[in-house]
Amino acid sequence: MHERGVYVLDEYPPSARAVLRHHRGGGQMCDVRIKPSMLSWARRRSGRGDAYIKKNFPELESWERGEALPSLGDLEEFAKATYTPIGYLFLDEPPEDRLPVSDFRTVGGTGVAAPSADLLDTIYMCQQRQAWYMEEARATGEGPLGFVGSMSTADDVVSSAGRIRTALKFSVEQRKRMSGKDAARRQLVRDVETLGILVMVSGVVGNNTHRRLDVDEFRGFALADPWAPLVFVNGSDYESAKIFTLAHEVAHIWLGRSAVSNNSVADEPDHAVERWCNAVAAEVLVPSETIREEYDRTADLDREVDRLVRRFKVSRQVILRRIYDTGGLDRTAFQEVYDKEVARAAEREKEKKKKIKDTGKGGGNYYNNILARASRKFTLALLASTMEGRTTPVTSRRLLDVWKASNIEELSHKLGVGR
C-alpha cells in the first residue's frame, strides 16, 4: 500500500490479488477472510513473543479462532509486525521456509530448526545488495575475481591458507604494527574488502535495532560470486569470535561455496566443506609452523596464551585451538580451558552491556554502524552510482535501509562522495 486505501496489486502474489481487488474499494476497513492457521503460523514464525503480538493485536485470539475477521488495514499491520510478506497470509497453508543457500549449520551433530525470519531477511537483503553490486561491477568494466572458487576441499590446508594469507597481506609480521586483536580484525576487514570481497558485520536485521540476530542460530554466511563475493559476520557474537568467523567465511569464497555456518573455532564439523574452512581459517590466522616454534610448553598456560595473543593479534580461543592442533593440549584439556575462556568472554560481554546501559553510551556512531553493516566498499560504490545518476535515490535508500534523505546526504559527505 502506497497511500491510505490505495493498493498496488502487482506487489502481491496471484493468490492474494483477487481478494485485494474485491476489497480495494472499501479501503482499510474491509474485513478479509483468511485461514486462521496462517495467522498462528505468522505469529510463531516472527519470534517476537506472544505477549508483544497480543498486546498490539488484542483481537488476534478471536481471529485465530475464526470468531472474527481482521480488516485489510489490520492485516497489513499484522504482516509488518510479524515480518511476514502479506501475500503469504492469503495462502491455504504455510510455505516452507528454506534458506536460499546451503545450510551447513549443526547442533550436536544434527541439522538445526527452520531458519528464522531474521536470518532469512538478512540473507535476502545481502542478496539484493550483491545483485546490485554485480551489475554495477559489470557496467563499470570490472572483471571477475579469479580467486573465487579457485580451491577445493582436496587442496592442502597449509598451502591453501598460505595463499589466502598472502593475497590478504595479513602475515604475522605485518600484524606487529597493529595495536591489538581488535585493530587486527578491523584491518582484516579492510584487507578482505581491498581484495574485492564485500564484508558486512551486523548484529541486527538491516538497521533495525529491535531485530537482533541470534548467534545461536548462525555465526555467518558467504555468498560466492566472481563479480561480487560477499561475507556476512553476525555482529551479535563475542568480539573475540568475529575474526575467526570472518576468516572462515572468506575460505568459503575461495571454495566458491555459498553457505550459512554456525561453527566456532573449537568445533570439528562433520561436513567436509565446514571442516576444511575451519582448518584453513585457523591456519590463516595462526600458521601451524609458527605456533610450533613460538609455543613454550614449559611456561604457565594462561600467561603463555596471553603472550601469543599479543604476538598473533587474535583471540585467546584461537590460540588455544592452535595449541591443541599442534599437540600442545589433548582434547579433554583443550575443551576444559576453552569452555572456561568462553565463559570469561560471556562475562566480559555482560559487563560491557551493563556499562552501556548504566552510562547510556556505547551504541556506536550511526554512520560507522551503517558502513559496517552494509560494507564500506558497497556503500561507497552505491553512493557514487547514485550521485552519477545510474542508481535512483530510492534504490540507494532501500539497499542501505536508510530512509531519510538527509542521512544519505550526511553519509555521502562524510565519505567524500560527490566532492
Could you walk me through the main structural features you see in this protein, from its secondary elements to its overall organization?
β7 (220-223) and β8 form a beta hairpin. Helices cover 53% and strands 7% of the residues. The chain contains 18 helices and nine strands. It is globular and about 75 Å long. α7 (157-168) crosses α10 (272-285), α8 (181-195) runs parallel beside α9 and α9 packs across α10. It is an alpha/beta fold. The two termini are 37 Å apart. It has three domains: 9-90, no CATH class; 103-288, no CATH class; 366-415. The protein has a five-stranded mixed β-sheet, sandwiched between helices.
Summed up, what is this model?
The protein is of the alpha/beta class and 419 residues long.
Main beta-sheet strand count, sense and barrel state: 5 strands, mixed
Give the overall shape, derived from the CA principal axes.
Answer: globular
Task: Tell me the domain tally.
Answer: 3
Q: Average pLDDT across residues?
A: 89
Oligomerization state of this entry? single chain
- Tally of helical runs: 18
Structural class designation: alpha/beta
**Contiguous runs where pLDDT drops below 50 for at least 5 residues:** 1-11
Radius of gyration: 24 Å
Order of helices and strands: HHHHHEEEHHHEEEEEHEHHHHHHHHH
The largest beta-sheet arranges its strands as 1-9-7-8-4
Instruction: Give the tally of β-strands.
Output: 9
Question: How much helicity do the residues have?
Answer: 40-55%
Which percent band covers the strand fraction?
A: 5-15%
End-to-end separation in angstroms reads: 37 Å
